[in-house]
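Input set for joint prediction.
Command: fold jointly, output tokens.
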Amino acid sequence: MSLSQAKVGAPEIRPGSQDSRDEILKAAMHLFASRGFHETSMSEVAREARVSKALIFWHFKTKEELFVAVLNRLLEPYFIDFAEEAGALDERAQIQKLVEFYLLFVRDNASSVRFFIAQMLHDQHFAEGLSDQVLKLYSGYRAMLVELIARGQERNLCSRRFTAEAAAGFLLSALNGILIEHLFMMQNRPLDPESAVAMVAGWLFGEEIRTDNAGGKAVA
Amino acid sequence: MSLSQAKVGAPEIRPGSQDSRDEILKAAMHLFASRGFHETSMSEVAREARVSKALIFWHFKTKEELFVAVLNRLLEPYFIDFAEEAGALDERAQIQKLVEFYLLFVRDNASSVRFFIAQMLHDQHFAEGLSDQVLKLYSGYRAMLVELIARGQERNLCSRRFTAEAAAGFLLSALNGILIEHLFMMQNRPLDPESAVAMVAGWLFGEEIRTDNAGGKAVA
DNA sequence: ATGCCTGCTAACCATTCGGTCAATCGTCAC
DNA sequence: GTGACGATTGACCGAATGGTTAGCAGGCAT
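tokens >
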């Protein structure tokens, strides 16, 4: 991106191999994510990275290898630990934090989330390895939810209408639904986590939420 | 192609232009939906349809035109009227029917639904026209939900914890979440609408559902 | 100096792509 | 018959693609 010279501010005295490799990755990341694999040519990547096409093939054997490298790079921010950060809270607050975390992450990484979902829906096998990584992440999040809800139910903090597994499954579905709705509507509405968390709380904890009288701020 | 004569089983007395056009569309439908636009070449379509490549360009001016024709064809089954079919039922039963309808449709048209979602996530603009059609369909369904819930709330059949709009939005998100989970897990689980409908009912109508004692059939 | 290895490039290659075109075949009208 | 016309084809085209190769600049050890 950034027309004209990108790094005029950061004087690149010595070329360095890692440097060029990184710029290739950045360019490829941008192009693959915004256009897709087949719609992006190596020449375009070379042009955007301001290197020769041959250099790309010197760093990465094939286009697929570059693609996989890009995928791994895009996946990095997904691996922050969403545990630990809320130890002293009770289950209810922890669940709300977890839900809020999910929504905030989606909001802040919308473009890469969109890219991954589109890619996984498109290429069923999809380099296989990546799909596994994503799935592992997903089921990890689910497991945390299940356990929190189960503990919450033991302490009578959560509704017991469903098993913890069923409740977590439904909750996760709702989150995913909010996610894709956000991906489609993107420019229209900004996805505010507050109302979604309120919905979830109302459902899971059986709370009463007034939306039709004074106090304003309807939950829509 | 096709060794020996191709259609010995179905006697094709006169070739007919509509016939070849249809086979081209069928072949393109299959290839576009399973591989995608850029990954499908006109030669492949020609081979699968057992016609010459030039004939495709006689029927359709460009590859894009063929693609749009395929999209419209794939979209046809989406336009059955999901109104009318449940007139005498009360709001609660109608909502359940509507939810069930959504889930059954998704289950039976999973591959084309997957294709549309992937396509719309991938090509932001996406031929513009199609996106509009899909959006109209979607908001039509949403409007029906909102009105049903509102009427249900008036008659005290539905929980009033949320506004009808908020409830419908959240419900729709849950359905969409179930949808994409189904698209990803596809081969693993078969998406049974029963349990999903039960979850929705529990949430929307405030029902108690026993899952942890006698009566069997856990809702998971 | 002389190799030598890393980083890098211009030019090239084979293949495939979307698309065109002149020519054919079959059928109906006259 | 013969022309007209819709349907159909093989052969072809320029552009673009993923990938290769020969070679060059320059630091660094001998």
